Amino acid sequence: MFKTNNFTLLYIESDLNIRETNAQFIRRNGLKVLETDNSQKACDLFRTQKVDMILIDLHLTNENGLDFIRCLRQKDISTPVIITASHIDQDILIDAINLNTTRYLKKPLKNNDLLDALMLSAKKILNCHYSSAYTILHNGFSYDPINKTIKHPDGEIIQLSRKEYLLLELLINKKRLIVPYNVIESIVWQETLMSMDALRTLVRGIRKKSYPEIILNINGIGYKIDL
């Protein structure tokens, strides 16, 4: 059902049997699934892998799944999040709604309800302000924000890494502005430190996958995109 969209779901669930059963169902419906049983591993996967939507149980072993969502929303306000729980009180549900969660599913999950929530998440991604169409770059290049790829004039498609597409999308969203180094560090490197050498290497990687003039260096201040 989702095969043409190449979506990846991050599934955070402490119960191995439940996680494997639901992950198998999700994969059968065409999504890629990254599995983990705790929020720390989830953070690592989110930083290093392409993640389009999240499915998380609120009652993780020795953890509150809502804390992970709060942390996520400090850096990312748009990734769809589906929450699950065997029981949930009204205050927690209100907190979850205020954190822009997409759907609450009561455990044990019903396949139809899960599929409906995944479809809703996919629609939210497709309706995102920068994902309704390709971003047209110069020299016949374009950027696909759904699949995180650069399309060359000859039709070749090049996949970007997580840091590459985070930087490119940041610059596109601020295309009329110079984005300072500290903002890049906060959005792209998030909770880790950024060195200038690492930033220059990242920019070179994007230029190599597209064209040299795509990103301009404003010496001593930051970067901007040539659009």
Characteristic terms for this protein:
single chain, 227 residues, alpha/beta, Rossmann fold, Arc Repressor Mutant, subunit A, 2 domains, 5-stranded parallel sheet, 4-stranded antiparallel sheet, 12 strands, 20% strand, globular
Folded structure, characterized:
By secondary structure, this protein is an alpha/beta fold. The chain folds into 2 domains: 119 residues, Rossmann fold (3-Layer(aba) Sandwich); 91 residues, Orthogonal Bundle (Arc Repressor Mutant, subunit A). It is 41% helix and 20% strand. It is built from 8 helices and 12 strands. The strands form 3 sheets. A 5-stranded parallel β-sheet has the order 2-1-3-4-5, with helices on both faces. It has a 4-stranded antiparallel β-sheet with strand order 6-7-8-9, with no helix packed on it. Helix 6 packs across helix 7 and helix 6 crosses helix 8. The longest helix has 16 residues. The two termini are 35 Å apart.
Q: What sequence of helices (H) and strands (E) makes up the elements?
A: EHEHEHEHEHEEEEHEHHEE
Would you identify the CATH H-level superfamily of the largest domain?
Answer: Response regulator
User: End-to-end span in angstroms?
Assistant: 35 Å
CATH architecture of the largest domain: 3-Layer(aba) Sandwich
Percent strand: 15-25%
Overall geometric form: globular
What structural category do the secondary elements indicate?
Answer: alpha/beta
How many helical elements? 8
Largest sheet report: 5 strands, parallel
- The number of distinct β-strands equals 12
